[in-house]
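User: Let's play a game. I give you a shape written as tokens, and you guess the letters that built it. Ready? Here's round one.
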């Protein structure tokens, strides 16, 4: 049998694009952004415009194989990642906890995004948090470019994923 690759691009060729304006919207966004990889160099805070921007490598959960899927003999099942731009508007302050912004090559693994009164916490693995002080919830997310295949599907051990208190003011 000839080996072949099986693409899991079931969602079509349209890029993921969404605007979040409330806590319910952010919950949906968090599900799509779970396990996104963020290089420290891929974020910036534009204080004069009240904007915080991240460029992540988003795992495309919507095209991932279902748990327990076994490829046919000779096939390889691929999941996908895609570059994704994330922009938060109305940001008045950015605080970070758990990483050195000077180590720009470090990769952060996004766990969740959740709002509370006047702030949005972006929680990452290894007790890393970015806290955005905001006037309101306004977030734009858009896939950029073409997805690429990956054979690595993230897994999640059972653990507490509450974000750490953001205690270090920064200009991310």
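Assistant: Ready! My guess for every position:
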């Amino acid at each position: 049998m000839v080996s072949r690759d099986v693409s899991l691009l079931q969602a079509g060729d349209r890029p993921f694009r969404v605007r979040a304006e409330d806590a319910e919207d952010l919950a949906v966004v968090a599900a799509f952004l779970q396990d996104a990889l963020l290089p420290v160099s891929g974020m910036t805070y534009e204080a004069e415009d009240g904007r915080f921007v991240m460029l992540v490598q988003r795992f495309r959960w919507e095209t991932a194989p279902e748990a327990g899927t076994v490829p046919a003999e000779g096939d390889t099942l691929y999941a996908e990642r895609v570059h994704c731009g994330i922009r938060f508007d109305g940001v008045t302050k950015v605080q970070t906890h758990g990483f050195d912004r000077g180590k720009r090559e470090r990769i952060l693994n996004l766990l969740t995004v959740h709002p509370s009164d006047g702030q949005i916490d972006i929680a990452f693995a290894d007790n890393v948090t970015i806290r955005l002080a905001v006037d309101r919830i306004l977030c734009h997310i858009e896939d950029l470019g073409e997805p690429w295949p990956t054979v690595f599907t993230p897994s999640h051990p059972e653990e507490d994923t509450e974000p750490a208190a953001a205690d270090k003011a920064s200009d991310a």
